[in-house]
Every structure is written in C-alpha cells, then in structure tokens.
Design brief:
α6 links the parallel β4 and β5. The strands form three sheets. This protein has a seven-stranded mixed sheet with strand order 5-4-3-6-7-9-8, with helices on both faces. It has a two-stranded antiparallel sheet with strand order 1-2. It has about 270 residues and is an alpha/beta fold. Helix content is about 35%, strand content about 20%.
C-alpha cells in the first residue's frame, strides 16, 4: 500500500475511533503527528486484541496481528487442558508489555489465572488498566517486574508460558519500519546478536517453571527457527514444533516440557 492510501485509511480510522466523526482542532493536530510517522495506535490510544480492548497509555509495544493469531491457538489449547484438569490453569505472560496476551487469555479462558512478567515497571499501570477495562477480577492476576523470570516466586510452576520477547536482530535494523524504530520501545524490540539473546535465555530457563505437561509458546523471526530447534534438543523439552502465522511466515514455536511418568520432570 502506497503512503497516500495508507494515510487516507488511517485518517478515516482516527476520525472514527477517536473523534467520532467530528473534525476538531485536536484531530488536525493528530493528523500532523500521523503524517510525521507516529503510529496510529498510539494516537487512538487503544487497539483490539482478540475480543479484548488493549490500552496503550504508557506506549508499550503495539500488539501485532501475528501475536493475536498464535495467542488464539494457545488459548484453544488452554481451554482444552482446563476441561481435563481440576482447578485453574496457571499461565505466565512473559515479556508482557501491555499485557495483551494474558488479558485476552483471561477473557477467553475462564478457568485460568495469569501472572504477568514485565521488566519495565512503567508499563505495570497499563497492564492493570487493561485488566480493569476488560472486566478481569484482580484475584485472577499478578504482575511482576524483573528480568524475565527474576521476580517469579521460587517454586512457581505454570501450565503454560506465553512469551513475546524482544527478538529483532540488531544487525538488521533496516528491516524495521522507521516509525517502529522511532516510536516503539527499543527494550521490547531488539534481541541482541541474531535476535536470540532473550529467546535463548527463555528456552534454557522455562523448564524450571513449567509443571507436568507444561508448554512454552514463544514468538520469533522465521530465520531463528533453526537455532531454536538446535537449542531445544539440548534441553528438557519433549518436542519442538514451529508454526506459521496467518501470513504464511514461520512465527512461533510450541515446546512441551519433557515428562517421565515414572520419575517426574526430567
């Protein structure tokens, strides 16, 4: 889509979603910001994610359709597991950002409890707002800071860990749209050398936090698939299954925790 068509479409969305069809002075100020590359989602202030409304007050990473796609698949598995298990399914939304993944799970899987882990504590009020705005009981959620699993209470075990970590390759910044580089949080984007710094740490550490039949889902770039599979072979996972997103690109991997029925966790 060329720039003129994109701006025309985004202008219409902005006018409808934020200004309810009324061209106020603030609307024209926002048009100027839009023309300078500021993301439409930040100007409107919220985005849909599955059937949740996700507010972006503290300017977290803007939720992507690809993330929405695999979260929907993970939620189906969560609900299937809930039908088999007594009590709640316990989920960790790792590198939570806005909390879009965990909030949508809580809305769509009633027998769940979700912990959110997000290193940037400035995003925690936005996660709390998204829980309230989507009618989630505070008793069903906890929010932790810290680097990845750092602040998760010792001994905690999850049925599912759902992660959308920073995974963009610092050596390929030109692949990333200028508006993303300029406006979205670098902490949520860049994954170090090969984009694998956080992905590798998650794969190594996640088994310690997965219970019986626990499953890790993680988003990543297509070219990281081979490295992820090679690393997973050295770790206690029963399998490593990579899947395409709705656009036909390899986008996420599902890794069940290895489990020996006779001896417990391997």
């Amino acid at each position: 889509m060329d720039t003129h068509k994109r701006l025309t479409r985004e202008r219409a969305w902005l006018l409808s979603e934020k200004y309810h069809g009324v061209e106020t002075p603030d609307f024209f100020d926002d048009l100027t910001r839009l023309s300078r590359g500021e993301p439409l989602a930040y100007l409107i202030g919220h985005v849909p994610f599955l059937d949740a409304t996700i507010f972006l007050d503290s300017r977290p990473l803007i939720p992507r359709p690809e993330t929405e796609y695999w979260t929907k698949h993970a939620t189906k598995e969560i609900n299937a597991r809930a039908r088999e298990k007594e009590g709640n399914i316990v989920v960790l939304d790792l590198c939570a950002g806005s909390g879009c993944i965990g909030v949508s799970v809580l809305r769509n899987a009633p027998k769940t409890r979700v912990d959110f882990a997000e290193i940037d504590t400035g995003l925690h009020p936005t996660i709390a707002k998204n829980l309230r705005a989507n009618g989630i009981s505070p008793a069903r959620a906890r929010v932790f800071g810290g680097d990845l699993f750092e602040r998760i209470p010792r001994g905690t075990r999850y049925d599912f860990i759902l992660a959308n970590p920073p995974y963009l390759n610092l050596a390929q910044t030109r692949r990333v749209a200028r508006s993303v580089r300029a406006h979205e949080p670098a902490l949520a984007l860049w994954g170090g050398t090969g984009g694998m710094e956080y992905l590798a740490r998650i794969l190594v550490d996640a088994p310690q936090y997965l219970g019986a039949r626990g499953v890790l889902y993680t988003e990543h770039e297509p070219e990281q698939c081979r490295t992820i599979h090679a690393l997973a072979k050295t770790l206690p996972y029963a399998s490593c299954e990579t899947h395409q997103d709705q656009f036909g690109l390899v986008r996420y991997t599902r890794l069940p925790r290895a489990w020996d029925r006779g001896c417990g966790i391997l």
